[in-house]
Amino acid sequence: MCSKVINNPPSLFLMDIIRFFQEALRLKNTKRTGWELSKVPEPESVADHSWGTAVLAAVIPLPEDVDRDRLVRMALLHDIGEGAIGDIVWERDGKQHHDIGKKKDEQEKAAIKILFNMIGDDDSITLVTDYIEQRTAEARFLKQLDKLEMVFQAYAYDDKTDPRILDQFWESSDKYLTDKNCREIYEKLKSMRNS
């Protein structure tokens, strides 16, 4: 994990941790772009979203091939590169812009390498890269939780803005939610929204 603990004198490693954490804290001030573009008042930050996704990862029933500890850690870190590159929207109004998505992925992978190399944490580079590239069962399930958390947030924002503006977030999430439990939660929220 953090190999610099052994290789560096403690005072140097402490400065690396401080710099790393200062960079990570930028997510608290990075607003979620989709909500901003939809004119949601006081939109959540990327850190808010990551926390919500991690809570879902900690409590939702899991498919057999998903390791909870790895999933929760991935959920906490999955958007950490956005502190450096911003929250780039590549899917809007039901349309996916794959060229923007590819560029975002490359920028994010470069950002996480710089960030985690500060503390010599190759494991986290692998973990977040797995998510970006959707290489593991945890990464694929986390993508569903990422979208499910977005639906919870859209549901919460219905009272703050015109709900029709938020329909796109529900529609975007719908196609990702294939897990039985995620699907049932989505459908229940949707029925609550429409009642």
Structural class: mainly alpha
Q: In CATH terms, what is the architecture?
A: Orthogonal Bundle
**Multimer state:** single chain
By DSSP (H or I, 4+ residues per run), the number of helices equals 11
Features:
single chain; 195 residues; mainly alpha; Hypothetical protein af1432; two-stranded antiparallel sheet; 68% helix
Structure, described:
- This protein has 195 residues and is mainly alpha-helical.
- The protein has one domain: Hypothetical protein af1432 (Orthogonal Bundle).
- The chain has eleven helices and two strands.
- Strands 1-2 form a two-stranded antiparallel sheet.
- The longest helix has 21 residues.
- It is globular, with a radius of gyration of 17 Å.
- The mean pLDDT is 90.
List the helices and strands and how they pair.
Blueprint: H1 4-7, H2 10-24, H3 33-37, H4 46-59, H5 68-77, H6 82-85, E1 91-92, E2 95-96, H7 98-117, H8 122-133, H9 137-157, H10 163-174, H11 180-194
Antiparallel strand pairs: 1-2
Helix pairs in contact: 4-5, 4-9, 5-8, 5-9, 7-8, 8-9, 9-10, 9-11
